[in-house]
Amino acid sequence: MEIRSREFPKRAVFAIHDANLQQALDRARDGFIGTRAARAAELPEFEQLREEAKNLKNHILENLDFYLEKYEAAVTAAGGHVHWARDAAEARRIILDICKRREARTVCKGKSMISEEIGLNEALIDNGMEVVETDLGEYIIQLAGEPPSHIIAPAVHKTKKQITELFAHSHNRPPKDTVPDLVNEAREVLRGKFFAADIGITGGNFLIAETGSSLIVTNEGNGDLTQTLGKVHIVTTSIEKVVPTLDDVTLLLRLLARSATGQETESYTTLSTGPRRPGDLDGPEEYHVVLVDNGRSKMLAGRFREMLRCIRCGACMNHCPVYGSVGGHAYGWVYPGPMGSVLTPLIKGLDNAYDLPNACTLNGRCGSVCPVKIPLPDLLRELRHLQHQREISPPRQRHALKLWRFAATRPRLYRLGERIAARALALVGKHHRIHSLPLAGGWTDTRDLPAPAGKTFIDQWKARRGQK
Amino acid sequence: MNAREAILGAVRASLGRGELDAARRAELEARVPAHTRPAIDEDPVERFVRKFESRAGTVARIDDRSQIVAAVEAYRASHDLSKRAAVGGALRELKWPRGWKVHHDPAGIDEALSVTTCFVAVAETGSLIFASGPDNPITHNFVPDDHIVVLERGQIVTHFEDAWPLLRAHGIPRATNIVSGPSRTADVEQTIQLGAHGPRRVHVILIG
Predict the structure, then answer these.
(1) Is B42-207 CATH 3.40.50.10420?
(2) What structural domains and CATH numbers belong to chain A?
(3) Measured between beta carbons, which residues in chain A are less than 8 angstroms from residue B33?
(4) Complex ipTM, two decimals?
(5) Which comes out higher in pLDDT, residue A448 or A17?
(6) Could you give the CA distance from residue B133 to residue B135 in angstroms, rounded to a whole number?
(7) For chain B, domain boundaries
(8) Does A468 have pLDDT greater than 80?
(9) A153·B20 Cβ contact <8 A
(10) Does A40 reach chain B within 8 Å, measured CB to CB?
């Protein structure tokens, strides 16, 4: 998928004025936050589990090479194939080769963010294959020709009315305007696709080294139909998703569903271990896992290793006031919200996503709900620091910061400046509000600047202490 | 250098070390996870039923195996289904009343009803665990509109960690399906709708 994160400011403004989007975002935010809080509150061990999950993921990352090799050996022992892909192009090539060898015409897909990351659909379609997204949300946005706007609820930005129009147009059937009728229509249309598919491609939420299994969680069952009915099952996943044992994955699953959709568990958790076995009546003839690196091994080196703990629940974006105002498309690539604002610059380059780490109020809600305790606000701040060091931030901002540092390291000068500014602003402000201010249009164009009281905090503090 | 060596090399370089030595590998092989399990002081059978029903599953209780077919027939009649079913191989011996057509093949595109057993059930979340094999085609769990699962009391364990040793002893199946109620979606305006792609209803016949 082409990156358009440089357009963030423009797309954010557009999003804020999109009434349909704002309606959809309001609804989603209310739902996600409440249900997650309820599940966390009813499990007394929830905070303990977060701490253990953080430690587990740290342990895995410290020994990542060991667990990857162990996982690969177990997949091979079960008759499956592991393919390693350094980057998106290599991953696409591996998958295309399998599809071409099997002379695939129809490919059914379960939801996979890695597939979005490597731009798989375009590559398959360019090679003459029909690609059918089968997760209802993914299906909706595929019909609309849009990328996902949320990592677990890809069509969260669509209203029911928009989906009604989209289905009526695409299916050439009378418009359905209730949720059950819409879901039924998609079920009917997609049923035939599952049975006709040559290849089934799914993601992998976790990879279990002990058993050589890939694991997916879904609510719809589309992932299972996809991987059972195709002749070949291909798993698109990434290197940090490996976990040592079944007991370890259990810990992460307890946190994933609660943090993501606010359920104790999703409807379906499926472990796939190799291809169809002798005597089996169904299941794929071939089983392939494509392990994508795409910048992750490099991320492992420093401060940003913590980001590799992410289990892709989406809680950070559900609780982010910026995501809640602009939605996922504004971020311009695959991963939106706080986790996306960290991942996008790290995978696609700091200068390709300048605005993302800055589109954050540092309110800290994302970090406080993260099931694996990723300090997202700290990582975003670290990215800003890197942008400054590498001189990617705007020159005006760097000069202003230099000026500020000059003053801030000279307390007398700093206080004098404060005094002058506080008085000047108090004089300009009418009724304690300032409607416009030279050089501060970025603030005053859309809202008033509160006028200061006229005396600085330090002066007032001194005066009050003097009174005592 | 091939991609595998390149990626493993990059991982080790980022970790600031070479390959792990034999001692450290042995330590990791011997690691036994001991994570906190949610405390459960409820009877596992009662909890399974409560949790399964909370996820829109339904449960009918019978005393012994001789009542399975009657319980299936009662469910069929109450949902006005035709007398056809894909039946799991483990239930081959059941005698079906006149008029019923059953088979033990994978579920076809128009399959409306399946009747199967499961490997174990987990009280913690009200989940059924299915292990694929010659008697247990996976399509039985996902294609029909209605899925009936015959479950014995003794198959219900408390936590997932209690199920894993049983699965290891059985041998890890090609597909392990953990099913917690019917298929559902909330992709249209966060409204929960049952029966997205998998079964619209999952019904447990609990023996004992």
Answers:
(1) yes
(2) 1-39+323-393 (no CATH), 43-162+193-297 (3.40.50.10420), 411-467 (no CATH)
(3) 56, 244-245, 247-248, 251
(4) 0.97
(5) A17
(6) 5
(7) 1-31, 42-207
(8) no
(9) no
(10) no
